[in-house]
Every structure is written in C-alpha cells, then in structure tokens.
Amino acid sequence: MWFEILPGAAIITVLLSVPIYAMYGVQKLTLGNAFRRNMDERFSRVMYQRDFRLTDNPYLMNGLEAIPDEEEDDQNKEQNEDFNVGDDPDQEN
Length: 93
What we know:
The structure is a single chain. By secondary structure, this protein is mostly helical. The chain contains three helices and no strands.
C-alpha cells in the first residue's frame, strides 16, 4: 500500500536534515560563531574583507573602536610614501 513508503521517507528526511543542523555546532566549535556570513553579494564580501582587515576576525561585532584614528593612518601613510614602483609616468624619480 501507499503508506509502506512512509518509514523510508521519514528516514531519508531525517538523514538529509542532519548535516544542516549539525553545521550549527561545527561552526560554533571551529569559528566561534554559529552562523557564516553570506557572501552572495559584492557588498557582503567587501564588508567581510573590511572586518577581517580591521580586527583579524570578521565574526566578532565591530564598532567604532575597531577603526583606527587618523593619526595612525597618517603615520602609516608616511611610512608607505617611500615605496615607489615606478608605474606613474608623470612622477619623476
């Protein structure tokens, strides 16, 4: 009869749903966060890279304290001014 397929359908449904729910625990153990960030759109990828660059962990909440001050940026800019790759034809060596 048609109801003889119900135990097999239930087993298949449970087995196919195990990886979905198991990933919650696996990501909690490996990443420290139970949810991955969505990388489908370009804006999401850019925000992921920004958070990784600022704090080296894109899964922690980042506030304004994670953004360096302008004074630190000026010091880094002064250090990087000596680096000239020679690809600007208007700039003389």
